[in-house]
Amino acid sequence: MVDLNNFASFPTLAIGLLVAALRNRGHQVQLISPLAHDVPATARERRETWFDHAQRRIHLSDWQPVLSVRDALRRMRSWRNELLHPVVLREVAQAIEARPDAILLSAYLQHFNTVREIGRLAAARGIPVLLGGPMFNVADVAEAWRGLPGLAGVVGAEADRDLPEMVETLCSGGDIGRFAGLTLPDGSRRTTAAPLRQLDATPMADFTDFPWDRYPVRIVPLMTGRGCQWDKCLFCSDVISASGRTFRTRSVENVLLEMQEQARRHATTNFLFLDLKLNSYPDMIRGIADGLGRYVRGAEWIGTVHVDQRQDNGLSRQDLFAAVAGGMRRVSFGLETGSQRLLDLMQKGASVERNSEFIRDAHAAGLSVRCTMFKGFPGETAADMEATARFLEAHSRYLDRVRFNDFSLQHDTPIFRKVMEKGGALGALVVRRTEDRRARAEYRNPDAGDRSYRRAKARALAVVHEINRRPLRDTARQFDGLM
User: Which 3 state secondary structure label does DSSP give 262?
Assistant: First the structure.
């Protein structure tokens, strides 16, 4: 198994789950983790410099005279991110010499070139390759990848329980096309895989092969559930991924028992929850805060939440203070914008007032607060960006990090389908081309070039930089760069 999703601070959860499933069935598994061979890991957020601020200003520029330069720089960055790494290919080539029965690849969409080269190496030796990743359940994406050399199939499903039988069928020459969610090289596909239920029955992740000595802090990743209880944001690609469709949860006790065992295995008390929304089931976040101390003494943890408008969303001031008392040190959430009009257009299910209350309460409780935002959603105006700048200015002192991105028009999201149904245009936004293998569309939005919009954006980005150049709160330093 080759883990191309190379993280600098923690093991890859999906890999750990699949390795455990195979070993529980009696299979021998060799994991190739690039970080163990000094391959540079995926860059994470860090304390900013003026150079980072300048890069962001260029990347998010909408000024007409520099758009061609901006686009060229974006293409250059994409090209760099997709470069082959010779060390990875060397390690895979050496592993192939030992004649494994199969090669399993876990990939994000920037790994196209690497998957192609590994496929060629495997095909030359007659070794079948199975490729999996979070977005391969999207038909257009699987179609763009399924013809790569050496691939026996592209898996767009939660394979936690089916993978052992799938591998056994592959190695015995059986029909792997009978497995739901698997696309064959000829493009045939039996059916879409249903979301995995009864999550308490999934295996506990096996992280023993990861290079723990390379991590600056030992942090164990895990999930309490999959999907999102809200599931309505028009722009969200997470909820259309293989594991993000529909909300399902584990029991609180099952989660706590895993944390206890992983703490024992890896001699750590630090945990990262990768749930799309840790408060989809409000009693989960409360249960962890209340019970974790009895399972892992001194445990500390972080996670991502959605500040929705349910009467009980698990994020009251009392809940947040209790979470900190129970070991929570950092929280991330999707702020997106400071404009209520735009939040409603996005179907975010959030309010500016409640976001403000949450930020202040979380900061008061002692949490390091991180948020994500983006500009360019169809229909955004200069007034919306002004509201965003004002919101950031008013809450700057309560925020530790802000990740501010360009709007991404991702395949199969509700907003993507809406744009394409309109002939590739929605308002001023016009699609220039679609990239199936990257699951995104390239577009232009002339409204974003308006001078008043650009001035408001410059104000917002100046505040973002002022926030990001500060150090994290001391209590969250071990989790710097995560989420």
Answer: helix
Instruction: Give the span between the Cα atoms of 177 and 170, in whole angstroms.
Output: 10
Does pTM top 0.70 for this prediction? yes
Residue 269 burial (CB count, 10 A) = 18
Using alpha carbons, select from 50, 109, 119, 48 the residue that is nearest to residue 78. Answer: 109
Kindly report the CATH class assigned to 50-77+216-479. alpha beta
Q: What are 60-70's pLDDT values in tens digits? A: 999 988 889 99
pLDDT interval class at 145 (50, 70, 90)? very high
Domain boundaries, the chain: 2-40+86-183, 50-77+216-479
| Residue 172, C-beta contacts closer than 8 angstroms, at least 6 positions apart | none
Q: 92 pLDDT band (50/70/90 cuts)?
A: very high
Q: Are 36 and 211 in contact (CB under 8 A)?
A: yes
- Return the CATH fold of 2-40+86-183: Rossmann fold (3.40.50)
* Average pLDDT value for the chain: 95
Q: What is the largest CA-CA distance in the chain?
A: 64
Pairwise CA distance, residues 158 & 194, whole Å: 9
Q: DSSP labels for 272-338? A: EE--S-TTSSHHHHHHHHHHHHHHSTT-EEEEEE-----S--S-SHHHHHHHHHTTEEEEEEEEE-S
Reported as a pLDDT band with limits 50, 70 and 90, residue 205 is very high
With a CB cutoff of 8 Å and minimum separation 6, the contacts of 452 are 382, 386
